[in-house]
Design brief:
This protein is of the alpha+beta class. Helix content is 46%, strand content 13%. A hairpin with a 3-residue loop joins strand 4 (96-98) and strand 5 (102-108). The chain is globular and about 65 Å long. The protein starts with a helix and ends with a helix.
């Protein structure tokens, strides 16, 4: 491995010699190593070397071009802030294909802390602020230069249409088992799909979106717990800003895990929602349009239904997409997300009032 890392470092024109390296075990998709170099002046500098899983990310060159556009724009726009910096080869590429099928990239290491889950309201608000800042930094970026690396990733209408096509086909004979789940999704199908229809019709702005807005994709200062930078840009694409918001609070305000089998433990925490919303809106209220702010709650509901539909679709077609650790794992995931969506519906007016109060306080 040391020989491989040496080759990668030379290709990315890193200065000095490798002093130490260690595998980073957090993360299930890519292989990541923290590699520390000793510079000629005896100082140490660390980098993250990452081998991209091209079986999961089937368009790695497009992904890296998207990342290059976005990170370059953010660094040039905010030269005094810490930003992700991917290194380039002599050919000007921010990736290197080694031994034909090993796809490598190198980014500066940022000394920080991350949170896989979080109950600290201050950190939740800071997470909202981080993703809101990310949106604002890219509010004037020309998103037309980006590839849609996963077509229709958050096209809720298409996801639901596909689900009901597969329900009709019932290829694995599982549809009768999930009649209640299907009935509920059918009852909210139009409401859940509304934003994706508006987006397709040009009624909602096309933004640069992160598409994986979990709290562990923000690096925080170890002492102050203030956000430093948003990471993991592999799914950055054109999309709806509200869906980045909705997916974040869907995850962070869930009182359980995404595969909690005991539905009595699943609910939507309004205090966590309010904290994230406060952080997000404080950074975006001047750059987002009214139609985007007004539909934050609906986006949260819609993306929750979308994920439930994806889990259910996978279950009735034979569990081919999501990794399952037991036979009905996808069905448990489905029911968990539907329970969450129902609680969002019950609390809809309260959530709308939270958004309204945040806006009023910012404008006061």
């Amino acid at each position: 491995m040391l020989n491989t890392l040496n080759t990668i470092g030379q290709k990315f024109r890193l200065v000095g010699e490798i002093y130490s390296f260690e595998a980073i075990t957090m993360g299930n998709i890519n292989a990541t190593y923290k590699v520390t170099y000793k510079n000629p002046d005896e100082t140490l500098k660390s980098y993250l070397f990452q081998r991209v899983n091209i079986h999961v990310f089937k368009n790695p060159v497009q992904i890296m071009e998207n990342i290059d556009h976005v990170t370059t724009f953010i660094r040039e726009k905010n030269p005094n802030q810490i930003a992700l910096h991917f290194h380039h080869t002599d050919e000007g590429l921010n990736y290197f294909i080694y031994d034909e099928n090993a796809f490598w990239r190198v980014v500066n290491f940022v000394d920080s802390v991350t949170f896989n889950t979080c109950d600290d309201i201050r950190v939740i608000e800071a997470t909202g602020k981080a993703f809101g800042t990310f949106q604002t930094q890219l509010s004037d970026f020309d998103g037309t230069v980006l590839y849609e690396t996963i077509p229709n990733f958050h096209n809720t209408k298409k996801r639901l249409d596909t689900l009901f096509e597969h329900i009709e086909a019932d290829s694995c004979g599982r549809v009768l088992e999930v009649k209640k789940e299907i009935e509920y999704i059918a009852s909210v199908r139009e409401k859940a799909a509304e934003l994706s229809v508006m987006y397709a019709n040009g009624e909602i702005p096309k933004r640069v979106t992160h598409n994986d807005t979990k709290c562990n994709n923000v690096l925080f200062d170890k002492k102050t717990k203030e956000p430093i930078v948003v990471i993991d840009l592999d799914t950055i694409m054109p999309g709806m800003s509200m869906y980045d918001f909705g997916d974040a609070v869907r995850f962070i305000a869930n009182t359980s895990t995404e595969d909690e089998p005991h539905l009595s433990k699943v609910s939507f925490d309004t205090e966590k929602f309010a904290a994230f919303a406060k952080g997000f809106i404080s950074e975006t209220h001047k750059s987002l349009k009214p139609v985007e702010i007004e539909n934050l709650v609906k986006a949260t509901f819609s993306i929750t239904i979308e994920l439930a539909a994806r889990f259910l679709d996978d279950y009735i077609t034979g569990d081919k997409y999501f990794r399952c650790t037991y036979p009905k794992h996808n069905l448990v995931r489905t029911r968990c997300q539907l329970q969450l969506a129902k609680d969002i519906e019950r609390k809809w007016d309260e959530l709308e009032l939270i958004i309204k109060n945040i806006i009023e306080n910012l404008e006061a």
